[in-house]
From TrEMBL:
This is Polymer-forming cytoskeletal protein. It comes from the Bacteria. Residues 1-22, 127-154 are annotated as: Disordered. Residues 1-18, 129-154 have a biased composition (Low complexity). It comes from Gluconobacter oxydans NBRC 3293.
Length: 154
């Protein structure tokens, strides 16, 4: 085999995104690799190494055992077997495996934590029945009462 020829079965470009379907955009940050910056247009992010980012939006996040994510991320579903240190918003399901650690602030609709999984920080559940703007409705109720009270004589 010529020296420059690719080996059969080998990836053409090391570290290139692995496609799991014809339209699926997946970014895999492999073990021993560190990435800093923003990620755009990834449907699925798999962190086996280290990722540092101010904000990432994707459909799915998977942090494997030994993987570390630092920063902010908003996803539909997330599975955590490694470590997330930062802010995580999960509009669907968050699964924290027995080796998973979440440090920081998390908002999620559904949560599953295996025995041994850890959450250190603030947890907020997203509920379907919650009013969209509770502060505005409370303020509207308070304003007429204040107006009525000021027009009455003591």
């Amino acid at each position: 085999m010529p020296a420059g020829a690719p080996r059969p079965g080998a990836a053409a470009v090391p570290g290139a995104p692995r496609q799991t379907g014809p339209e699926r955009r997946t970014l895999v940050v492999g073990r021993g690799i560190s990435v800093q910056g923003s990620v755009q247009d990834a449907e699925r992010l798999v962190v086996e190494g280290t990722v540092e980012s101010s904000m990432i939006q994707a459909s799915e996040l998977q942090v494997t055992h030994g993987g570390v994510f630092r920063g902010g991320v908003e996803v539909e579903d997330a599975e955590l077997a490694g470590t997330i240190d930062g802010t995580l918003t999960v509009n669907g399901s968050l699964t924290i495996r027995s080796t998973g650690r979440l440090i920081g602030k998390v908002k999620c609709r559904r949560l599953q934590v295996e025995d041994g999984g850890q959450i250190t920080g603030q947890l907020e559940m997203i509920t379907d029945g919650a009013p969209a703007r509770p502060a505005a409705s409370e303020a509207a109720k308070a304003e007429p009462a204040a107006g009525e009270g000021s027009s009455e004589a003591p």
